[in-house]
Amino acid sequence: MASQGLVIILGALLLTRLVAVCYGNVIKFSDLERTLVVSASPRQGQVLEAGVDKITVTYGLNQNTSAGSVDSTYKTIKLKLCYAPISQVDRPWRKTVADNLVKDKTCTQNIVSEPYVASNTTFTWLIARDVPSATYFIRAYAYNYQNNEVAYGQTTDAGKVTNLFEIQGISGRHVSLDIASAVFSAFSVVSLFGFSYLEKRKAKKSTQAM
Amino acid sequence: MDGVITMEGERKFTLPVDSEHKATVLPILSAAKPHMLAFHLSWIQFFSCFVSSFAAPPLLPVIRDNLNLTATDIGNAGIASVSGAVFARVAMGTACDLFGPRLASATITLLTAPAVYCSAITDSAVSFLLVRFFTGFSLATFVSTQFWMSSMFSPPVVGRANGIAAGWGNLGGGATQLIMPLVYDLIVRIGATSFTAWRIAFFIPAFFQTMAAFAVMVFGQDMPDGNFQRLEKSGDKPRDNFLKVIYHGIRNYRGWITALCYGYSFGVELTIDNIIAQYFYDRFDLKLHTAGIIAASFGLANIFSRPSGGVLSDILGKRFGIRGRLWGWWVFQTTGGVLCIALGVVGSLGASVAVMIVFSVFVQASCGLTFGIVPFVSHRSLGVISGMSGAGGNVGAVLTQVIFFNGSRYSTELGITYMGIMIIACTLPICLIYFPQWGGMFCGPQPNYTEDDYYLSEWSEEEQRKGLHEASMKFAGNSKRGGTRKVDSATSPAAAPTPV
């Protein structure tokens, strides 16, 4: 009993330590400057298929800012697929947490991660097969050498209203699965009747033998 | 007499049995026919049903993306998963009384297996809710487990038999939180995409459930002397009247109290199974994987905590009789309520995990203590009482989830605290349970009222003339022997001659 209690206490302490380690500086979305320009091939309202269609993204530093001034700290650019507000409704696991980018769940689908160059770059992405059905926009984050976000750009406006597109996810179903389900289900039910019939016969036989 | 191998005709039992041929000991590691074989078949089948019923929660992060579910859809499916069994448990109780636990349990297990197979082909929130609803019906096998154990094991050990069988079955709710993610990972590694992998994963619990039902059908036996159908046809066991069985069950107020109280031990356990992973994930920012392990540990405590409740009930019964069993039950369940309040109040991760583990022990032990009382409430309608109590557990789960964990009226921690208060309030009715032959929490037994009088009251004069009450009289005799009367040096069962 005592050793069980000790294990519980040690386990709890370890968990608390791990949680403490994870918390560093808190970065807010409002801390970031929108210095990147991102545009993507899908038009407003277009519906794309996961696993089939491709998205071409062009991104780079905003031409109106001079290279070498704001982007001296940029080390990597990460492109992400982000949920539009309509796909976040009643889904707390996709919540936008503007006060803390570590907890923010708006952009959970990674497209690509590239080293930063000031000039425009184009990337073509085949939509992954585990992308869920939802309405999206694309955002690019610029990271510094400490791997913290310092700037961003996105295909939509600040209110996340314009330029949204839809992706239709795969169903994951296959004909073979459908058939297997049907066969096994039928097997279960039929075997039940089989057993009951055998039971009745056994009972009748034993009373006849008496 | 206890402790002696009884022979009747050509039947001989490996384990020591009483006059009803129920075993008086419970050697866990044995598979002796028919008693221990029934024990193992019973808990394994129930375990498989629990694994299936709670197979979805650990895979929800993938399923919710595939089926485009909202939080409301998930909540409704969770409520549906436990509400199907409310009616199914009552029906199962009656089915056990009429057809025997072997046929009744294997039937429902085989009839719900299609729902688990079809989980692999759902494609919408509605179909997801429906498969969880129908899969949940399989939790009715709890009732058949308790009925079967009460038919195979004698009063001195019935508490622990019920407690261990049910506890190890409930283990499925914890084990599935570990099994399903592992199976899913394996399938993804083999090369399936995530939205297909979870579907394939569901075939594992479905197949396990089918095989468990087969084993019960082929190897199981309803009663120590044989199966219902054979015994009925040979005249050894008279077939009872359906309506009378139900009538005697529902008019016994004690059954309603055990149903209510079970709603606030087992019902709370089911609620926690559904919400605790998300609670730890959200409140303490854990990874889903870590939150899942904590959630699993709540359910896994069942391996010893619920059986301990059953064993404790038997120990208290031996020393203090039924009154001891009632007091133990009330103390443990009320303590569980206090710990539940504490769980909602503590603010740090370490304290929460510690409180949750202690809370799980008390809540699950209370479940075991409940079914140390249920076998004695009625003999004629044992199945109906077991079914009502079991169903009450699920009603409690539905109620607590609807009142405290639906929408955003209360934060989860406030909901947990209020649930604790409700546990304490709804456990008070245990004080009202009174057996005229044994007493209640605050009152002693009536002087000239015996066990025979109590169990005989379920049979009319005409039925007694036909001799239909004989099985109940055997049970009455055995119930005097252990676990219901206070032990006195002058009247210890071993010293006194067997009354005829």
What is the strand and helix layout of this fold?
The complex is a heterodimer of chains A (210) and B (500).
Chain A: H1 2-22, E1 36-40, E2 47-49, E3 54-61, E4 76-83, E5 109-115, E6 121-126, E7 134-143, E8 149-154, E9 165-168, H2 175-209
Parallel strand pairs in A: 2-9
Antiparallel strand pairs in A: 1-3, 3-6, 4-5, 4-7, 7-8, 7-9
Chain B: E1 7-8, E2 11-12, H1 35-53, H2 60-66, H3 71-99, H4 101-118, H5 125-136, H6 141-152, H7 155-190, H8 194-201, H9 203-219, H10 228-233, H11 242-250, H12 253-263, H13 266-284, H14 288-300, H15 305-345, H16 349-370, H17 374-377, H18 382-404, H19 412-427, E3 434-435, E4 439-440, H20 451-456, H21 461-465, H22 470-481
Antiparallel strand pairs in B: 1-2, 3-4
Helix pairs in contact in B: 1-4, 1-6, 1-7, 1-9, 3-4, 3-5, 3-6, 3-18, 4-5, 4-6, 4-9, 6-7, 6-18, 7-8, 7-14, 7-15, 7-16, 11-18, 12-18, 13-14, 13-16, 13-18, 14-16, 15-16, 15-19
Task: Describe the protein's architecture and organization.
The complex is a heterodimer of chains A (210) and B (500). Chain A has 210 residues and is α+β, with helices and mostly antiparallel strands. Chain A has a domain at 27-168: Macroglobulin (MG2) domain (Immunoglobulin-like). Chain A contains two helices and nine strands. In chain A, the strands form two sheets. In chain A, strands 2, 4, 5, 7, 8 and 9 form a six-stranded mixed β-sheet that branches. Chain A is elongated. The mean pLDDT of chain A is 86. With 500 residues, chain B is mostly helical. Chain B has one domain (4-222, 238-440): Up-down Bundle (Growth Hormone, Chain: A), CATH 1.20.1250.20. Chain B has a two-stranded antiparallel ribbon. In chain B, α7 (155-190) packs antiparallel against α14 and α13 (266-284) packs antiparallel against α16 (349-370). The longest helix of chain B is centred in the middle third of the chain and has 41 residues, at 305-345. Chain B is globular and about 65 Å long.
